[in-house]
């Protein structure tokens, strides 16, 4: 029998509960014990921050968004944020975290997270606490896997938003700008933009110029289409400019928070066209709610595979989707790093072929 820890780290995404359910179900059937650690590494340092997960705990969670374990994107034991007088400072609390994991009697962790959580897992593995990584993020930007769970749901939510913006854009002869998430990757913007029939799609991988966008709007006007819909990834940048940032990374406040890319486009456009431009920031709606059937399936398959690896004692592997199959790869920096939309890839080319303006 193995006893292992289970943690969800980083930003939440639809499907986390489906992974938790699959891990607990499979582990229970194989006679293993799962210790749930709450709010990522915070749970290790709190009095009631861990609990044994059983079939009772996970009943009914499959369709639920969020994570019953809670999560945090500000919980790195190697850079733990603490208040020192009036300001936040960072300390290395990894030895304390490792000590707590040993006290809990776990032989390793199943870490459900993005690139940041996987980097922590790899650093802990170097210090003797191995992991199995389960990649998650709505951004779909994890290198080792063809798709992360959470992305399909976020893409559908963004597509639905584009559909809704279309009707009101048309009614008012407006340019509607939708800012979507994705951090430094444009997967959500490009794929929802294509699925929703956006006229303009701006992604971080292709710096934009306002000229071609103005031309695209005016071309549509000349055809009697006096409205346009633009989808802008939060990480998109004007050529020679910088990303729009809402909050800088500071100790205790997590990573850089992007935001405002839609407004930047709207301001640039307003100067050059005679249509009204409005901005909608889709924000955390993309991360909430029930996972799609695809994400539930993917999450369940990854969770079950993670336990199969624990069962074999095959630690320090990342479970991934390759083509149609679930498999596993070594948990290297390369596999757990980030990936980006290929500006010359098939989807970007399809967008160009269909006359979508990518701001080039
Ligand atoms: O990585 C997922 C994500 O939703 C990004 O798309 C976005 O930039 C970020 O997290 C937002 O994080 P937070 O919820 O901390 O604002």
What keywords describe this structure?
360 residues, alpha/beta, Rossmann fold, seven-stranded mixed β-sheet, four-stranded parallel β-sheet, binds 6-O-phosphono-beta-D-fructofuranose
Write the layout of secondary structure elements.
Elements lengths: L2 E6 L7 H15 L2 E5 L12 E4 L26 E5 L2 E5 L2 H10 L5 E5 L1 H12 L4 E5 L15 H22 L1 E7 L6 H10 L3 E3 L7 H13 L5 E6 L11 E3 L9 E2 L2 H10 L5 E6 L11 H20 L4 E6 L2 E6 L15 H8 L7
Bound molecules: 6-O-phosphono-beta-D-fructofuranose (F6P).
Commentary on this structure:
- The protein has helices at residues 16-30, 94-103, 115-126, 151-172, 187-196, 210-222, 261-270, 293-312, 346-353, and strands spanning 3-8, 33-37, 50-53, 80-84, 87-91, 109-113, 131-135, 174-180, 200-202, 228-233, 245-247, 257-258, 276-281, 317-322, 325-330.
- By secondary structure, the protein is α/β, with parallel strands linked by helices.
- The chain has two domains: 3-149 and 289-330, 3-Layer(aba) Sandwich (Rossmann fold), CATH 3.40.50; 153-288 and 342-353, Rossmann fold.
- Strands 3-2-1-6-7-14-15 form a seven-stranded mixed sheet, with helices on both faces. A four-stranded parallel sheet has the order 9-10-8-13, sandwiched between helices. Strands 4-5 form a two-stranded antiparallel sheet.
- A hairpin with a 2-residue loop joins β4 and β5.
- α1 (16-30) packs parallel to α8 and α4 (151-172) crosses α5 (187-196).
- 6-O-phosphono-beta-D-fructofuranose binds next to β12.
């Amino acid at each position: 029998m193995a006893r292992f820890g289970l943690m969800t780290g980083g930003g939440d995404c639809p499907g986390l509960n489906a992974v938790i359910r699959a891990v607990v179900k499979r582990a229970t059937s194989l006679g293993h014990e799962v210790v749930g650690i709450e709010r990522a590494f915070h749970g290790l340092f709190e009095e009631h921050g861990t609990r044994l997960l059983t079939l009772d705990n996970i009943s009914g969670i499959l369709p639920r968004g969020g994570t019953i374990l809670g999560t945090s994107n500000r919980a790195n034991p190697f850079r733990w944020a603490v208040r020192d007088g009036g300001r936040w400072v960072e300390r290395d609390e990894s030895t304390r975290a490792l000590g707590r994991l040993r006290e809990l009697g776990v032989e390793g962790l199943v870490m459900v997270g993005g690139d940041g959580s996987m980097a922590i897992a790899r650093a802990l593995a170097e210090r003797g606490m191995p992991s199995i990584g389960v990649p998650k993020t709505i951004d779909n930007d994890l290198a080792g896997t063809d798709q992360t769970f959470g992305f399909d749901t976020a893409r559908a939510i963004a597509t639905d938003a584009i559909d809704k913006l279309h009707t009101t854009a048309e009614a008012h002869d407006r340019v509607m700008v939708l800012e979507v998430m994705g951090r430094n990757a444009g997967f959500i913007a490009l794929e929802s933009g294509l699925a929703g029939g956006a006229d303009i799609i701006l992604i971080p991988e292709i710096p934009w110029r306002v000229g071609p966008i103005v031309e695209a709007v005016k071309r549509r006007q000349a055809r009697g289409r006096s409205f346009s819909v633009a989808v802008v990834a939060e990480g998109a940048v004007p050529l020679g400019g910088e990303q729009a940032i809402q909050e800088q990374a500071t100790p205790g406040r997590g990573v850089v928070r992007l935001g405002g890319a839609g407004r930047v486009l709207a301001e640039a456009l307003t100067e050059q066209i005679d249509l009204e431009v409005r901005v909608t920031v889709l924000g955390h709606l993309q991360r909430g709610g029930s996972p799609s059937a695809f994400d539930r399936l993917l999450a369940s398959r990854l969770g079950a595979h993670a336990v199969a690896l624990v069962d074999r004692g095959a630690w320090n592997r990342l479970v991934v989707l390759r083509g149609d199959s679930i498999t596993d790869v070594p948990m290297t920096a390369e596999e757990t790093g980030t990936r980006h939309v290929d500006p010359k890839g098939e989807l970007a080319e399809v967008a160009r072929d269909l006359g979508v303006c990518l701001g080039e």
